[in-house]
Specification:
Blueprint: E1 2-10, H1 16-23, E2 28-37, E3 40-48, H2 51-61, E4 76-88, E5 91-103, H3 107-114, E6 120-126, E7 129-136, H4 142-152, E8 157-166, H5 173-176, H6 182-193, H7 205-212, H8 216-236
Helix pairs in contact: 1-2, 3-4, 6-8, 7-8
Length: 239
């Protein structure tokens, strides 16, 4: 099995849902999607973050005029069904079924037309980034998918290429994403992005604290708590 990864980056003001992420760094989401046909797909997406941000996510998702799928200049017209499966504290699990897609294009509809049937999608959202991992039976027409996406993205969206390679294990993020409070999650992600966990480390605690605008002692506490939770999740399973 092959995997193709890429990221769509959103500017502020071009997508109401992604604006919630841009305005709430502690908000993240992971999803698992299946493309039933080229004109329909289903999605399970779990959002983790402050309750007020989750309220905004639900309002945007249920807005009948909101086009979450479209990545081209022409809006996507579709029949959309959204259901809140679970809402508990700082977590929200949403199920979506989108059918009769026409008009503009979504990543799912482009992939459904171009790639072999049976593709699966994992995505992550944080700040202005929507990261995609597409699991494929073969890599036939992946180049065409790349060309179509990069050539047709609407203004305010940018494309970043990841990799195309054999699948090296699969640990679905939707099932295994650790439960971390927002401030700990932001601290851990920032430390990782700045290279703190590289060997040798590319960043110090002072560098990360300066990036986040918090005292070094506060950052150290948040990282210790986050790392302890990750260890518990690894050996005991997510609570």
């Amino acid at each position: 099995m092959r995997e193709f990864t890429f990221t769509v980056v959103y500017d502020r003001g071009v997508d109401p849902l992604m604006d919630v992420f841009l305005e709430t760094p502690a908000l993240t989401a992971v999803s698992f999607d299946g493309c039933v046909l080229g004109d329909r797909f289903w999605r399970l997406e779990r959002f983790t973050g402050p309750p007020e941000a989750l309220d905004r996510v639900e309002r945007v998702r249920r807005d009948e005029d909101y086009d979450d799928e479209g990545v081209t200049e022409t809006p996507v017209e579709a029949v959309r069904y959204h259901e809140t499966v679970e809402r508990d504290g700082d977590r929200l699990l949403l199920y979506s079924y989108v059918s009769d897609i026409h008009g503009g294009d979504s990543v799912h509809s482009i992939a459904g037309r171009i790639l072999d049937e049976g593709a699966l999608f994992e995505t992550r959202r944080h700040e202005g980034r929507h990261e995609w991992r597409v699991l494929l039976r073969t890599d036939r027409n992946v180049g065409q998918l790349y060309d179509t996406l990069t050539g047709r993205l609407r203004d305010g969206l940018a494309f970043e290429t990841g990799h195309l390679r054999e699948v090296d294990g699969w640990n679905p993020a939707l099932l295994n994403e650790p439960s971390l409070p927002g401030e700990q999650r932001v601290a851990l992600r920032t430390a990782w992005e700045l290279g703190y966990y590289e060997t040798p480390s590319d960043a110090s605690l002072d560098d990360i604290a300066e990036e986040l605008g918090v005292p070094r002692s506060t950052l150290s506490y948040r990282l210790r708590r986050a790392e302890a939770q990750l260890v518990r999740d690894h050996f005991e399973g997510p609570g």
